[in-house]
């Protein structure tokens, strides 16, 4: 191990843009009270698709964060990312005028990137030819532009890049930032993910894979139901989740608020299938086991897992099997899924869910997994069904798994000084 390995990393700021709220208070009050953000699809024509519901961000005004001209030059996923980063920086009480900009970095990604921009510009091309294509097409659509635009706005000149691992994107970005601080690349990182793929291509692609829920189009609030026997696919959603990671001594020196200490990020690959999880959850287990090994903790030390829990028939079973093997079939670990309320925000999910986990530690409560009406015996976990639990958690995992067999498990512990 190099000499930087003893550097400790803490989470000092959170920022979210979600279907259930765009401030931390609104977001937390929604998920702890089981408020559902899944509604009928409005941003594209629902009659085109078998799944007619989504977790849309409905109360986001770009002009709260950007000049009109500036906003027009950003895809919606970039707008979300920059806005969530603004909120996280503000939450952390970070003032870049007091910092060395070369010691502050940004690692923010997206699973899909600027799909809406690609569609819109392709439509213009078909109607009017190549000269109708915007000169801003490329910098609007490319995935790394979320990180680039954040660094420009915040004046951060340290390491700046993105990671793309489908629905594990935000978790891997956070893991990369964690390692960057441990290795001494920077003292501060803005990290997480953003997604806005509610477009004809996005909805059509996932629908034609039979990945989306179609059984609850008339009752959208019941559609996302992780670990329930009637689940029939995930619900597409959009949003962003950004965290501020900071080297501990640096955070203490500036008297920053501290949500939790980030102890480890376990990662693995299924080496199994493009889109399906390995049936026994071996890759998921390996990622969680690696996080435990890095942290020096034991399975019995973990009180809560914010699961990937997407509400897919195969995914929920494989994650449950992994948890059962690692923690024991009759373990007391709580395994909640906030996707039951937000839907699946794809590349943003790991950031949003880590924020939810940190807020659980702060407020002494675990959000419920709603819509748990008919427990699936193949998902033998305590999913905190339907009602929040008032309990002080001090250690937790946040799981994210993506197409391609990408797995990440983030381990956090309440900071006690």
* Helix count from the secondary structure assignment: 13
In terms of DSSP E residues, the strand content is 15-25%
Helix content: 25-40%
Major pleated sheet: 10 strands, mixed
The total strand number stands at 14
Largest sheet strand order: 5-4-6-7-1-8-14-13-9-10
Distance between the termini: 25 Å
Structural class estimated from helices and strands? alpha/beta
Shape: globular
Mean pLDDT across residues: 97
Taken in chain order, the helices and strands follow as EHEEHHEHHHEHEHEHEHEHEHHEEEE
Unreliable stretches (pLDDT < 50, length at least 5) are: none
User: Mind telling me the C-alpha Rg?
Assistant: 20 Å
Give structural notes.
- This protein is an alpha/beta fold.
- 33% of the residues lie in helices and 18% in strands.
- It has 13 helices and 14 strands.
- The chain has helices at 24-32, 68-72, 76-91, 115-128, 137-141, 145-154, 169-183, 200-208, 248-253, 282-295, 313-327, 339-342, 349-363; strands spanning 9-17, 39-40, 53-54, 104-109, 160-161, 188-195, 239-247, 260-269, 304-306, 334-336, 365-366, 389-390, 395-402, 406-413.
- A ten-stranded mixed β-sheet has the order 5-4-6-7-1-8-14-13-9-10, with helices on both faces. Strands 2-3 form a two-stranded antiparallel ribbon. A two-stranded antiparallel sheet has the order 11-12.
- A hairpin with a 3-residue loop joins strand 13 and strand 14 (406-413).
- Helix 3 (76-91) crosses helix 6 and helix 10 (282-295) packs across helix 11.
